[in-house]
Structure formats: structure tokens, C-alpha cells
Recover the amino acids of this structure.
């Protein structure tokens, strides 16, 4: 065994290269310079202008973000005391803070929503009844926890938001059952009989309302792509909660209510009960004295009512579809940092990139100085060479939202930063970003993919399109997508070189070994793998002259300069060649302010610039990619599944009603719920987004519940009494007014904390909550007015289509008495 291993530079220095007959040696250090250091790199990072090393810590098991954060912070505290002087360690970015904020946000909103639901129930229902109805929420939630693991679900931000969505909806069926039991008890029926009869009467509408809710949430399950993988959790959680709540409201709730006893109340309990009863009776009088006569008027002018409702629907839908309401993939959400990215021509030296990054740094410091608030910024990081020496990125880490919102938003900081930096000459691309993007990443608002078989045509077309985009006032940070690549010297072997036996492969090998280095040895040094490279000194590999004068060794052992055996020609190497279906493609990208107006820019491009571009470049094709492609994919899937879900709902409603027309009456509330969602976005100052559409799809299953129960009561009343059709629907609307209003208020109350939330953590989900909350509010008014009118109109049409005797019977049907006389 020979123990001649050498691990360090000073050991390699004493390595004998030649030993003469007289015993003298020529060592490696006598003929070469030995540098035992780190591998050459063009990448470095800074923090607040000082050199820095950044470490990212990831979990490798089932640890939570909080556990990882606590472990890192604890280890860092123990390391600080052992660091050499002048070296500081700090945590620049801790994602567990987001996790903590999200959990706190959702728990707070859930608690507030639960409290609002309890208060609303307590106003309209007896305290004990309100309590047991409200208990359906925690029972349904706890019951669903048993099934989440089987569905592969965990408790995270999306699943917790799904629970908040169901917070107000899940109690709707319990309200219907409980209120009906309460109604029968008020008529003098014992609790046990009231519970049995009340639950039995509403079993059918409750079951089908749950089923319609489930069906209309299912389109969210089939959304493709990244969006689908994230939002798929919502329908899974909702379906589990709804199924558990169905069993609770039909079996558990009646059992609790049936064993209630009329007890004599004393003290505070008696006072509260008296106030609640006074409010309940006052509300009942208002329904009879105000809503009843108003409903009589509506039924008497039912055709005018329907015409007015359709006109309102047409106006609102026309406004929404006109483009006046912005539409985007995600709502814009300010990030906790402003970011600037720069790309120089490929092959640019790192010193040039560093100079531009330094300019960004000075621009950021200028903005901070202008606002005079040092607390706005927590730190500035820079990363040069992250994707090559020609790329760089700088991030300005801003203070938390509660501090930042008092000074300036991230978007305002980014815009002022862009102005402070000014135009940057000699770069391929500069982009300033201030939002957090979405599930698919930040991306550009506009991305047009050009395709052609000729790279020259693509280069010309992409440059022309980028020039057009720069003329739009809302467009910024335009990238033509074409990077010419790094300059290179293309060598061709001369006949003289071939005669000496040199080949292109041999010349390339010797040039590479001389300038990049030949790997002589690779070995392990403790935990690191060390490569020993042999190459020319740095002074001999810095210019083209050095390359031309490089001495090559021929197969015969002779030395010859490179310039004598090969000729050089300047050229460029493409950094990337992207293809789609065998054709080369280039993506031209740009941002739009605000992003919701990107659709207007794309429509203008489609109608003017792009047709002209195709005419001037035969064979060129284009497509909209990036966020637009994601939106197209999500909305395309949503349209198909939404229509299928509507057909399924119609079929499910037709079965219990045994009618083709009554399901349409129930479903007429869906378009008006959509109008309410649009109005909610206008009121709250939000643009429409794909997330809003998710809420509208889910809303379509919830808004039919009230109409379903009202028509079911009217049908039952027709079977059990001899009242006229008008009297039947009038009575059903009066009797169902309180539960309809209750279900609406509890649903909106459960969502209200999320709708009015200002935290950045909630802004992605707020549009969905707005669609559900405001859509239900608006649809309730339609249900209480339009559904009775439509019910009567359908009977009018049915009567006209009946055979002679039946038509006569219908025509001679006496007009029913209107609502009872006002009660003082």
C-alpha cells in the first residue's frame, strides 16, 4: 500500500514531476502556480450592500412550518456566539409567519362569523332553539374531521377557508327544520310532536337543497392545472360537511328539540326571553302588515314585475360583459417586498451586471430618503448571476402591512423605485414587481407566443410586436422574448491543420483544456468533493490574442499556434431554442397597470396589431399564453362543468316536484344571484377574477334553496287545502319569509368577516366570499318577490293550455282574499 495521497495545495506543491539521474527533483510548484481555493463563479449575493451568503431551509418530513422555524431560530441563537468578528446572521424571510397569520386570520374570522350567526338566530328564534340550531355548526365540523384523512386532506389555508364558506350555509337546513318545529310549537303542539311533524314536512326540500349545494360545488373539483390542485380542496371539504350536517339536522336536531320542556324563566333569562319574543312578534306583524300587502301588489302586477326584473338582469349583465368591470386571473395583492429583475445581453461580464444592481440599490435608497421613513424598509437583498453573469435580482424587504399602509403601498414603492432608477441602457429586459402573483406564480399580464419555422422571421416579428406594446399607456416592462445569445468564435480547420493530422475534435479538446481546464483528479476532502484542474494562467486566457497564439500539440509531437491551423469567424450561440409542435416559438411579454385591464390590451392587439403582423410575416402564427392561457384553461373547464351541474340540478328538482316548469322557477334565482355577485364586486371595489367565478358557481347551488322550500310549501298547501293558487303561494311566501331571511343573514354573517378582511393573507379568497355573500343577499329579494310572481304566471299559462272544461274551471276560479288585515 502506497501512502502518497495529497489533499491540500501545499502537499501538491511538493509533488515531484521529474527526477534527474543525480537525484535532484523538479516539483510541481516550480513549474505551476497552485491555487487551493473555491471554484470560479460569477454569482454572489449582498444584504444591505454587504457580501452575504443566503441559506434556504426546507422540511424533509412531516414537520409543520412553525416547527421548522422554531428549530432554525433556536439553532441560530446558539451559533451567533461562535461566529467570527464582523459576521452577522439574521433571518431574512420566514414563511412560517404567513402560516401563523393565516391560521390566526381564519380562526378569527370563523369565531366572528359564528358569533354573528348566533346573534342573528337569537333575535329571530327562541334562545334554546337558536342554541341547538347553532350547535349544528360545530357538530358538522367535528364530524367532518373524521373523514378528512380518508380523503387525503389536511388543515391548511384553503381547507380552512372552505369551513368558513360552509359556516353560514351549513346552518341553513338546521334553520329550516328548527323554524318549522318552532312554528308548530307556537301553534300549541307539544315539543315532541312538533319535532316529528316539523322535521318530516321539510325532509324532502332539505335533502334536495343539500344535494343541489353539493352538485354546484363539484365544478371546482374538475378545474385543471395548478389552480385545480389548490382549489380542489374546497368541494371535498364542503361535500363532507354538508353530508354530516344533513344527518345532524334531520336526526340529531329534532331529537334535541323534541325533548325540550316549557320551563318558567326567571331573572335575566326571563328578561331576554321577553325581549326576543317582543322582537319576534313585531317582526311577524311587519311581515303581515308590510310584506303581505306588497306581495299582493306584486302578484296583481306579476307580468310587469317579471319584465322589470328581466330588464334589471339585462342591464347588469350587459354592464359586466361590456368590459367596464375589469377581469383578471387573480386579484392584485401587494407583496411584502418590491422586486427588480434585470437581464443583460448573454455573456455580459458580471461587473456590468453588478453596476446596474448598484444603480437599483441607489434608486431604492433614494425612494426611502424621499419618504423620510426608515422603518418602511427592513432590508435590501441582491443576487447577481443567479442564472448567469448577465442576470441580477434585487429585493427591497418592506415592513409589515400594518406599518406599510400608513406610508405607501408596495405597488407605489415599486413605481417610485422605477422612476428613481430611470431608463437603463444596454439591457435586454428590466422588470419591477410588487404583487405576489397567484398559485401559478407571478408571471406577466400579457404573453403573446409567436411561432415560425425561421428564427430570423421570429426575431423581426417579436421586435415589431414589442415596439407596438410600448405605445400603450397602460403597458410597462415589455420583453420581446428574443435573446440573441452569447458571442462566440466559430473555428474551421485549415488545410494546413488537416495536413498536420489535427481534427476539429482534437483542437476543441486542447482549447478547452487550456482555457477551461482539464480535470486531473477528483477526490474527497472531508465532506467536500475536490476537483484538481490544470489550465493556463489567468493572464494567458483573457483576450482573443491569447486564443490565437495558443500553442497546439500535433499528433507528431510538434507545436503550432492555433491561428496557423484554424480560421475564426464571429457568431452567436442561442441560449435557448423553444419549440412547440416542431416550430420555433418566442414569447413577447408585458405587464399592464392595472392587471384587470389586460383583456382590453389583448383585444386591441387581436383586432389591429396582430393581423398586421401576420400579413407582413407570412407563415407566422400566434397564441395567448401565460396568465391568459391559465385563465382560458380554468374558465373553459368551468363553463362546461357549470352547464352540466345546472342540468343535474334541474333533473334533481324535477324528480320531487314532478314538473318541468317548477324547477325553472326555482333556478331563476341563479342569474339574479350572479347579478348580486357583480354588484358586490362594484361595492367592495374589487375587479372580477377567476376566483370570483368559483364563488359564482358555488353560489348557484345555494341560492336555489330558498325558492325550493317556498315552492315545496306551496305545493303541499295545494294538496292539503282548497285555497286558490294565488292564496297558496301568498301563504307560502308569508310563512317562509322568516326562515328565508334567516338563512340569508346567517350565510352573509358567516362570510362577512372574510369579506371585510383587510389582511393580505385573505385577499386571494375575498372575491369568492364576495360572490357568495352578496349574491345570496340579492337573490333573496328576488326569491321573495319574483318566485311567487313566476309561480302564478306558470299557472296562468298552464290554465290557458288546459282543455275546455279545465280552462273554464281555471278561468272561473274566484280571486283569493289578499293578506289579512293589518294587525296593530
Amino acid at each position: 500500500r502506497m501512502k502518497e495521497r495529497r489533499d491540500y495545495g501545499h502537499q501538491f506543491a511538493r509533488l515531484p514531476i521529474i527526477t534527474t539521474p543525480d537525484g535532484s527533483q523538479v516539483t510541481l510548484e516550480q513549474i505551476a502556480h497552485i491555487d487551493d481555493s473555491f471554484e470560479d463563479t460569477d454569482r454572489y449575493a449582498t444584504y444591505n450592500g454587504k457580501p452575504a451568503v443566503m441559506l434556504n431551509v426546507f422540511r424533509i418530513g412531516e414537520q409543520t412550518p412553525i416547527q421548522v422555524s422554531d428549530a432554525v431560530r433556536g439553532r441560530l441563537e446558539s451559533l451567533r456566539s461562535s461566529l467570527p468578528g464582523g459576521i452577522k446572521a439574521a433571518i431574512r424571510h420566514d414563511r412560517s409567519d404567513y402560516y401563523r397569520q393565516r391560521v390566526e386570520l381564519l380562526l378569527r374570522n370563523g369565531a366572528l362569523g359564528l358569533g354573528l350567526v348566533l346573534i342573528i338566530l337569537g333575535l329571530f328564534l327562541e334562545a334554546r332553539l337558536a342554541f341547538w340550531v347553532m350547535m349544528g355548526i360545530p357538530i358538522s365540523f367535528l364530524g367532518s374531521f373524521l373523514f378528512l384523512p380518508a380523503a387525503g386532506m389536511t388543515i391548511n389555508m384553503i381547507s380552512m377557508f372552505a369551513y368558513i364558506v360552509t359556516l353560514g350555509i351549513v346552518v341553513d337546513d338546521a334553520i329550516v327544520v328548527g323554524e318549522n318545529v318552532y312554528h308548530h310549537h307556537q301553534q300549541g303542539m307539544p315539543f315532541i310532536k312538533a319535532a316529528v311533524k316539523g322535521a318530516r314536512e321539510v325532509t324532502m326540500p332539505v335533502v334536495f337543497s343539500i344535494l343541489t349545494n353539493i352538485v354546484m360545488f363539484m365544478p371546482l373539483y374538475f378545474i385543471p392545472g395548478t389552480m385545480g390542485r389548490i382549489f380542489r380542496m374546497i368541494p371535498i371539504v364542503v361535500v363532507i360537511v354538508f353530508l354530516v350536517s344533513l344527518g345532524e339536522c334531520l336526526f340529531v336536531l329534532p331529537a334535541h328539540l323534541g325533548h325540550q320542556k316549557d320551563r318558567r324563566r326567571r331573572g335575566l333569562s326571563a328578561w331576554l326571553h321577553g325581549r326576543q319574543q317582543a322582537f319576534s312578534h313585531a317582526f311577524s306583524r311587519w311581515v303581515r302588515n308590510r310584506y303581505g300587502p306588497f306581495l299582493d301588489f306584486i302578484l296583481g302586477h306579476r307580468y310587469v314585475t317579471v319584465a322589470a326584473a328581466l330588464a334589471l338582469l339585462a342591464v347588469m349583465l350587459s354592464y359586466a360583459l361590456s368590459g367596464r368591470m375589469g377581469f383578471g386571473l387573480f386579484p392584485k395583492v401587494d407583496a411584502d417586498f418590491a422586486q427588480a429583475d434585470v437581464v443583460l445581453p448573454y455573456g455580459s461580464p458580471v461587473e456590468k451586471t453588478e453596476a446596474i444592481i448598484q444603480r437599483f440599490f441607489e434608486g431604492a435608497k433614494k425612494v426611502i430618503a424621499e419618504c423620510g421613513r426608515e422603518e418602511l424598509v427592513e432590508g435590501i437583498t441582491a443576487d447577481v448571476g443567479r442564472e448567469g453573469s448577465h442576470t441580477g435580482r434585487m429585493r427591497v424587504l418592506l415592513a409589515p402591512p400594518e406599518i406599510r399602509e400608513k406610508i405607501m403601498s408596495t405597488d407605489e414603492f415599486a413605481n417610485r423605485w422605477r422612476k428613481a432608477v430611470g431608463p437603463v441602457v444596454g439591457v435586454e429586459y428590466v422588470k419591477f414587481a410588487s404583487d405576489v402573483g397567484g398559485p401559478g406564480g407571478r408571471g406577466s399580464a400579457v404573453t403573446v407566443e409567436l411561432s415560425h419555422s425561421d428564427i430570423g422571421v421570429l426575431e423581426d416579428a417579436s421586435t415589431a410586436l414589442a415596439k407596438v406594446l410600448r405605445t400603450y399607456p397602460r403597458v410597462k416592462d415589455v420583453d420581446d422574448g428574443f435573446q440573441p445569445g452569447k458571442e462566440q468564435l466559430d473555428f474551421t480547420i485549415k488545410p494546413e491543420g488537416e495536413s498536420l493530422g489535427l481534427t476539429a475534435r482534437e483542437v476543441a479538446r486542447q482549447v478547452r483544456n487550456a482555457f477551461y481546464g482539464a480535470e486531473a483528479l477528483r477526490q474527497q476532502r472531508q465532506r467536500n468533493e475536490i476537483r484538481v484542474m490544470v489550465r493556463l494562467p489567468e493572464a494567458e486566457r483573457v483576450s482573443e490574442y491569447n486564443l490565437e497564439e495558443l500553442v497546439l500539440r500535433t499528433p507528431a509531437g510538434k507545436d503550432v499556434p492555433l491561428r496557423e491551423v484554424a480560421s475564426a469567424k464571429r457568431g452567436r450561440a442561442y441560449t435557448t431554442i423553444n419549440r412547440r409542435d416542431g416550430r420555433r416559438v418566442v414569447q413577447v411579454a408585458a405587464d399592464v397597470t392595472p392587471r384587470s385591464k389586460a383583456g382590453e390590451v389583448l383585444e386591441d392587439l387581436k383586432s389591429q396589431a396582430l393581423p398586421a403582423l401576420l400579413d407582413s410575416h407570412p407563415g407566422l402564427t400566434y397564441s395567448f399564453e401565460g396568465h391568459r392561457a391559465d385563465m382560458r384553461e380554468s374558465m373553459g373547464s368551468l363553463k362546461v362543468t357549470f352547464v352540466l351541474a345546472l342540468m343535474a340540478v334541474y333533473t334533481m328538482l324535477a324528480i320531487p316536484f314532478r314538473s318541468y316548469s317548477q324547477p325553472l322557477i326555482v333556478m331563476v334565482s341563479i342569474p339574479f344571484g350572479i347579478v348580486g355577485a357583480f354588484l358586490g364586486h362594484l361595492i367592495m371595489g374589487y375587479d372580477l377574477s377567476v376566483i370570483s367565478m368559483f364563488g359564482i358557481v358555488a353560489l348557484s347551488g345555494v341560492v336555489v334553496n330558498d325558492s325550493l322550500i317556498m315552492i315545496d310549501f306551496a305545493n303541499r298547501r295545494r294538496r292539503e287545502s282548497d285555497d286558490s293558487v294565488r292564496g297558496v303561494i301568498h301563504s307560502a311566501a308569508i310563512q317562509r319569509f322568516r326562515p328565508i331571511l334567516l338563512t340569508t343573514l346567517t350565510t352573509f354573517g358567516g362570510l362577512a368577516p372574510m369579506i371585510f378582511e383587510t389582511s393580505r393573507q385573505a385577499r386571494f379568497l375575498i372575491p369568492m366570499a364576495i360572490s357568495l355573500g352578496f349574491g345570496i343577499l340579492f337573490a333573496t329579494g328576488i326569491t321573495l318577490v319574483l318566485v311567487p310572481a313566476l309561480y302564478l304566471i306558470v299557472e296562468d299559462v298552464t290554465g290557458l293550455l288546459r282543455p275546455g272544461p279545465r280552462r273554464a274551471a281555471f278561468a272561473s276560479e274566484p280571486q283569493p282574499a289578499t293578506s289579512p288585515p293589518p294587525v296593530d
Q: What stands out?
A: The longest strand covers residues 334-343. The domain at 99-199+216-329+631-811 is CATH 1.20.1640.10 (Multidrug efflux transporter AcrB transmembrane fold). Residues 766-801 form the longest helix (36 residues). The chain has three domains: 99-199+216-329+631-811, 334-435, 486-573.
